[in-house]
Amino acid sequence: MHRLALSEVSIILVEPSDTQRKIIIKQLAAADIHHVEAVGSVAQAIEAITKHGADLVVSAMYFEDGTGLDIIKQIKNDELLASIAFMLVSSENRVEKLEEFKQSGVAAILPKPFTPENLSTALKASLDLINSDELDLELFDVHEVRVLLVDDSKLARNHIRRVLNGLGLQKILEAENGAQALTLLKENTFDLVVTDYNMPEMDGRELSEFIRFNPETAHIPIIMVTSESSSSLHMANIHQTGVNALCDKPFEVNEVRKMLASLLGK
Among the four 97, 156, 178, 237, which has the fewest Cβ within 10 Å? Predict the structure, then answer.
């Protein structure tokens, strides 16, 4: 499979400010990206994505006719468009606003204003998602690894599934919360659990405790995916529940690759 270089990546840039569009296009060019189509509204973005497609959508958060969330939902809910990566560029720092994007499968969040280093990091994360290679495991056939994916957000599950599929993991069952996950755990055998932290009915902490203290499931590695800071009160003691690894949202390919190699390669 051909791996895209940065110079080959096609981008749809969605930015309402003409000045900001020019600045971002100049910074993308400095990063060796020249295939950029710039638009200024949600409607224009959806039209451009539908007509021409792209490897990556780079979008601001707020527009006169909606938000970047409308764009990413349009992408992620359409099978033909779902593989397009999405990068948010925003000066927004309210946790609850950024949380919506993290839950929706954004590849990277770029602060505004951003430095060339910020841009390089975000582009690398996006390119890793586009160019994902299968994981090579010594002790497992990666295609046979049985995964339980637990998240109350369908968009988040879709994004995580795409990342895992890109790494070669194909046998994935999904649950919307810990309670549903318990039913699947009782009826199936799994090699890995990937779970969100914040969920209704039974959250990731409670699910992890059940898995770890049940003799039939205690051996299963658990990756907890969260948008909370690892230094937060909730996360400070999460490893005491038996979680093997914490993974931040956005769910980045290289980080996940290292975790899986460590957890499944033993």
Answer: 237
